[in-house]
Structure formats: C-alpha cells, structure tokens
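Reviewers of the previous submission asked for a worked example of the structure-prediction workflow described in the proposal, so we include one complete record here. The input consisted solely of the amino acid sequence. No template or homolog information was supplied to the procedure at any stage.
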Amino acid sequence: MTVRLEGTLTVAPNDIEAARAALPEHIRLSRAEPGCLAFEVEEREEGVFFVREAFEDEVAFAAHQARVPGTPWAKATERGERNYRRWSD
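From that input alone, the workflow returned the following structure tokens.
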C-alpha cells in the first residue's frame, strides 16, 4: 500500500538559509532511497516549504523517516512547524 505525505513546513526565520542550503542534498538522498516513488520539496513563500512524498509501502516510508534525523536538513528544520497529512492508498 503506497504511503503518501503532503503539507507544509514553516522554517524558523533564523534557519531559512540553512534549510535552503541543505535542501538539494535532502531531495537527492530521499529520491535515491529504495521504495521512493516521488519526493518534492519546494519553497513557495519565504520560509514555507511545500512537501509531497510517496513511498511504495510502510517499510520504505519508515526507512526514510529513520534516515533523516541527524542530517543537515533535519538540523535546519528541527524548530520548524510541520503541517502534514499522511495517508495510504
């Protein structure tokens, strides 16, 4: 069953530049993960990133979630406000 996540991440003002710098590598590594079907993160307004992810199953999604902590992206966005919707289809 495909796992999807979509929503926004609002980054703390002092962390916006670090998030922008870390984003290309975060996208590259995420898209390279086994089971990643789609991975998009786009800054649509100052410090507000639209996130859309799709993984082939719970195992692939869980592996992604386990990989991200400790990365430059995670550090840059740890104080951010996440407003995501997650579902399976």
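The chain has three helices and four strands. We consider this example representative of the routine output the project will generate in years two and three.
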